[in-house]
Amino acid sequence: MHLGIIDIGSNSVRLIIAEIQKNGGYKVINDVKESLRLGMDVEVDGFISENKINATIDTLKNFKNLCIYMETVDIIIVATEAIRKASNKEDVLGRIKKAVNLDIRLLKGEEEAYLDGVAVLSSFYTKRSLVIDIGGSSTELSLLKDNQIYKCTCLPFGSINLTHRYGLNDIIIPTKEDELNAFLLEEFKKIPWLQEENIDSLIAIGGAARNLGRMDRKRKRYPLDVSSGYSFSDMDLTQMFNILKSKNLKQRLKVDGISKDRADIIVASTAILNTLVSVANIKDITVSGRGLREGILCKYINDNIGPHKDILDFSLEAIICDHNLDRNHAYNVYNSTRTLFEELTPMLELDDSYDKILKVACLLHDSGISIRYYDHHKHSFYIILNSPINGLSHKELIMAASIAYCHRSISAQMNTMAFTSIINRMDIEVIDKLSLLLRISEALDQNMMGIVKINRCSIDDKKVTIFLSGLKDPSLEIEKAMLNKDKFAEILKKDLEIKFES
């Protein structure tokens, strides 16, 4: 089924349409926005102007027509700080309802912050993380502890109203910047838990965060064009802030990574982020590709289908379903590879921290077949890198994709030179080891029926023996798996033998 979610924000009005699977998995199939800057009206006049009301109504009519065309079962509309603060909010909401015939839920600031937390928890494993969502007229903060939402707060300032108050849209006047920094420092110090909680990371939501992440990737020539999960340091943030505030609007429009509709307000957003990082003594900032709309979507799924137990498994099941993969074969290969991993741990010298990488590589190694069977390992590599896989860092994604790339044959060696700024020589050694285990397991399930099982392995001074059981004589499977014997000897320094235990 399809669900439409519309967010009437201070900077833009956005719609996402998501396709929700029966198991609760989903994918966004459309994402459109109109930059109406309702927050500027409220900041200057205290109310939303007639022109902006009409523009909002026209936008919502277009969005509703798109939802109807794409056969959504429901449309959820929420409004945030701009309408919350508008003196004519009741008139605005009433006129929208009459013109569009849709109810709008006016969110409280703490509700926004909570839904931001829901979005992050659906895509990241967290220990003690702070979530920030910088909007046009407000900034939401959520404190996450051990994958739970612990605190939520909303601050009544954002990129649009601060830009207006301190004249930040074009040339930055030093005295105004000093006033801005003093204001932000005072506001953040009013939140005592920011310094008390010993926060280990900041997860940033919204367009400003995505722009800064893209800017940092461009200036570092980062090889992976994936926004969500990208991390940069507090020092990187300070450098970007210094670059942006030293330029006028015309110059900022030319900065790689900064979108044209955000160049006039990006200094304010960056100042908010930079001050918060300093106050909370945070060293790492991670960009989230999901925000308020995804939080609403995940809450809808939790309420109507049921919550998911593990974010990685949840996303993998959705991708398996979306690409119509043979689920039994995928799990047969993963279970066999996992057994080999456990049995050969003394030789591999790897711990359980690699299990997420192994699981993704094994379960999605055939995903490229959905594009084309021939050379599907190459397509699997691309799909893994560009699918919404929860809970993995960029390094882990590249490693999983590279392992899957090497699953078909010994000669299929992934060129990792492009990613040397992310993975190192030791990571490549891990890729070689785990792809070897995957190739053996794939060979042992070449009939894709799970008939052959790996029971155990024995290790002696010169040789590793893999003992199998099953419903039939696995001579063909063993013959294919033994094609890896030379690579096995090269990587693990022992001979390989495979025996069937009837």
Automatic annotation (TrEMBL):
Domain Ppx/GppA phosphatase N-terminal: 17-299
Ppx/GppA phosphatase C-terminal domain ranges (all copies): 315-472
Gene3D superfamilies: 3.30.420.40, Exopolyphosphatase. Domain 2, Hypothetical protein af1432
Superkingdom in the source lineage: Bacteria
Keyword Hydrolase among UniProt keywords: yes
Keyword Ribosomal protein: no
SUPFAM superfamilies: Actin-like ATPase domain (SSF53067), HD-domain/PDEase-like (SSF109604)
GO terms of biological process kind: regulation of transcription by RNA polymerase II
Matches recorded under CDD domains: ASKHA_NBD_HpPPX-GppA-like
Keywords: Hydrolase
GO molecular function terms attached to this record: hydrolase activity
Family to which this protein belongs: Belongs to the GppA/Ppx family.
The protein's name: Exopolyphosphatase / guanosine-5'-triphosphate,3'-diphosphate pyrophosphatase
Organism whose genome encodes this protein: Clostridium cadaveris
